[in-house]
Write a structure and sequence with these properties.
By secondary structure, this protein is mainly alpha-helical. The chain has 13 helices and 3 strands. The chain has one domain. The chain starts with 5 loop residues before the first helix and ends with a helix. The relative contact order is 0.15.
């Protein structure tokens, strides 16, 4: 049996504000949600740095959180992170419904002989192929079985694969909720006043790595299955760079900390962390930490640009969100 994403299919979900009705009414503009995330990230971070360093009193080599904690800019940063967090949840919900549509409407289970054919194949980016009367081993790859006839094409997918894709779609949604919660912690609990809630928020943001993996896996399977979506090559590269960036930032931060007498608690020392001069031990490692962190956060922007393109090319939103 296919694993149902109960939260995503339950019509009572989000009933308080009736999101489905809103999405149905404005379905042609849903792709703007991830675009807004991309724009806000690429604008908020540089502006925060420039205001904190050139207008405020922050040191040039500052972590994102330290630059954002400068008054009065901390309030603007907090507002932006809250807006982005809300957009994260809305975008991930919409994207999950889109993937669910592909799984339910365009995939056919092995024990189901009824054809499930989308009326608007062109809307999903499917490539029309020449008709074929044979079914060979070449039609079965990566768990998929493709049968071709002269008049139509019927598709079947192993129950194991569709259950895995459904689970990963659901897990992506849950991870992005955790990321949104983490982002609100980071934005509303400055590290210089509330270091531990701030650190907890950073840990939650790391769940984005799992979310990106799930999204890449789903996109790849959709590509393998009759080219429903394009192959996620750029998304894969960017996700790998984000993982590397997080690893470098954490590793070099720990190395810089251990060169101080207080060891791991060094990063909790506001006076040192906010003005880690060249005379201090570990300053070079800390510079790498700062650079890696800023680049890593900025790389989230093009990820959502790619998601924008995938959602914009989809034209069956009215079939998903009904009144």
């Amino acid at each position: 049996m296919m694993m149902d994403s109960k939260i995503l299919t339950n019509k009572k979900f989000f009933r308080i504000i009736n999101l489905d009705e809103i999405f149905h009414k404005y379905h042609t503009y849903l792709w703007i949600m991830p675009l807004l995330i991309s724009i806000m990230i690429i604008i908020t971070l540089p502006l925060t740095y420039m205001m904190a360093v050139f207008i405020g009193d922050r040191y040039t080599i500052s972590l994102v959180s330290d630059a954002a904690s400068a008054a009065p800019f901390s309030g603007y940063f907090s507002l932006c992170t809250d807006i982005i967090a809300i957009l994260f949840i809305i975008t991930s919900y919409i994207r999950c419904k889109q993937v669910e549509f592909f799984l339910i409407k365009q995939f056919k289970l092995n024990n189901n002989n009824d054809d499930i054919v989308d009326d608007d194949d062109d809307d999903n980016g499917n490539n029309n192929e020449e008709d074929d009367t044979t079914t060979t081993d070449e039609h079965r790859t990566n768990g998929y079985l493709k049968k071709s006839t002269k008049t139509e094409e019927n598709f079947q997918i192993d129950e194991e694969i569709i259950a895995k894709l459904s689970w990963q779609n659901y897990r992506y949604f849950i991870c992005m909720i955790l990321v949104a919660i983490g982002l609100t912690f980071v934005g509303n609990f400055p590290c210089n006043y509330h270091p531990f809630p701030h650190a907890f928020g950073v840990v939650l943001i790391l769940f984005s790595l799992i979310a990106f993996y799930d999204q890449i896996y789903i996109c790849q399977k959709l590509y393998e299955f009759d080219r429903i979506e394009s192959q996620p090559i750029s998304m894969t590269i960017l996700s790998c760079l984000i993982i590397i960036g997080w690893f470098i930032a954490i590793a070099t931060g720990l190395i810089a900390s251990f060169q101080q007498e207080s060891k791991i608690l060094t990063l909790m020392n506001n006076d040192l962390r906010m003005k880690w001069t060249d005379e201090q031990p570990g300053s070079q490692w800390f510079k790498i930490t700062v650079l890696a962190e800023w680049i890593t956060f900025l790389l989230y922007s093009p990820i959502y640009l790619m998601l924008t393109n995938r959602m914009k090319q989809f034209h069956n939103w009215q079939k998903i969100f009904t009144n």
